[in-house]
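@channel sequence for tomorrow's demo:
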Amino acid sequence: MGNVVLMMSVSLDGFIEGPGREIDWHLVDDEVHSHFNEVLGGMGAFLSGRRTYELLAGFWPTADQDPDSSPPMVEFARIWRETPKVVYSRTLEGAGWNTTVVREVVAEEVQALKARAGDLALGGAELAAAFMAKDLVDEYRIYVNPVRIGQGTPLFPPSDRRVQLRLAETRAFGNGVVLLHYRRP
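structure tokens (generated this afternoon):
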């Protein structure tokens, strides 16, 4: 059985995006991107909400054809195209690029997907909150960026649930980003 792995970049003060949904402060150089490729290349599927999917689908399908793309970007374009994707959306009618549209987060369906596909990479602010509310996240890979942005969308919305975790790994990247990787015991 696989795990649902929440992968998210976050500011030092806990935000995943600014008040205007900006993420221009995310520090993703070749070292960090190569690490992302290593982790994401082993995932059985990518889970995202509509906005995140549309953002990714607007760039990654042809990113490897851009002569300005770095080698890690070229590699991720292939990973993104080849990896099955599940988009949670009540409004999206259809999606390309090896993508299935699902209307609601249903715990039993997520468990069945984990059993079939293995590890699942979870991304997107609202979808991550929905998965956390249903206690469906097995691992947290939090990439802390060396910046305070003051306001925006917090990674962890308020909750009455306490979740015990075990530290699996830490890693400091050359650009100042620090990975905090936690798993359920």
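heads up for whoever presents: The chain has a mean pLDDT of 95.
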